[in-house]
Specification:
By secondary structure, the protein is mainly α. Helices cover 83% and strands 0% of the residues.
Length: 248
């Protein structure tokens, strides 16, 4: 029970302290730009290549199922594109980002904690929430949505390529946006914004609570990745259920 309360409560407390510290101390924008590069720039190839493989596999599975039921996978193209924009693009892109950026943030902050650099920052009148967490929070809110867009483009391109080359059908069917509307974009947008907010918070909780030596850094890194990934899945499920409840 304590672990459940910590899982849900600690990121909320971290968010409140970071917002309050950022409003009081200001946000170091040079560090924020560095964190945007760390989260977005260094994750872009993982997200795009992972989503490209994901899109290709999905088309192969859809083709196998279409042969059994309707005989033509091209008719599934518009539904495939809507599912990619609304559900799979945001969720899978966020998970890939959580695996790399979550590990990076957790390890960096845990190393600073065990080396007492965080205490040194506080003794020099610095604020760890404003100086360390707030830049990562801004980077997550900006970077995860951009990575989701690029990942969705990569998955769409790979689907078109596989359909055209390997399945010998018109791949343009998998770029058909006739079923995509404003609600789909809203659902996808809420998911990536929620994940962009949660990934740095989960990593910061794990990293700043690390105590001990090198072993603590490893444990904090694992804890940060697990928490960030589970949080993204919960956000995906919560947003999907909420909009399903109102039948949108």
């Amino acid at each position: 029970m304590k672990r459940v309360l910590t899982f849900f409560g600690a990121p909320g407390v971290m968010l409140a302290r970071t917002v309050r510290a950022g409003a009081r101390e200001g946000i170091p924008w040079r560090e924020t730009l560095a964190q945007v590069h760390e989260l977005g720039g260094r994750s872009v190839w993982l997200v795009m290549s992972g989503m490209a493989f994901f899109g290709a596999v999905l088309v192969m599975i859809a083709n196998a199922q279409a042969k059994k039921l309707i005989g033509n996978v091209a008719v599934l193209g518009p539904a495939y594109f809507e599912m990619l924009v609304r559900e799979l693009g945001p969720a899978v892109s966020a998970l890939l980002t959580a695996s790399r950026a979550g590990a990076s943030h957790s390890a960096e902050l845990a190393t600073m904690s065990v080396n007492e650099q965080v205490e040194a920052l506080e003794m020099s009148a610095g604020d760890p929430y404003a100086d360390l967490v707030a830049p990562r929070l801004v980077a997550g809110v900006v970077g995860v949505p951009l990575l989701s867009v690029l990942g969705t483009v990569a998955a769409t391109a790979s689907a078109v390529l596989v359909a055209s080359v390997a399945l010998d059908i018109d791949g343009r069917a998998f770029m058909d946006a006739r079923y995509v509307d404003g609600w789909d974009l809203l659902v996808g947008g809420l998911k990536v914004l929620g994940c962009g907010l949660y990934i740095p918070l989960a990593a910061a909780v794990a990293g700043l609570n690390a105590r001990g030596g090198a072993e603590a850094v490893g444990e904090a890194t694992t804890e940060g990745v697990v928490a960030a990934s589970l949080g993204c899945l919960l956000i995906d499920l919560t947003v999907s259920l909420a909009f399903q409840f109102v039948r949108l």
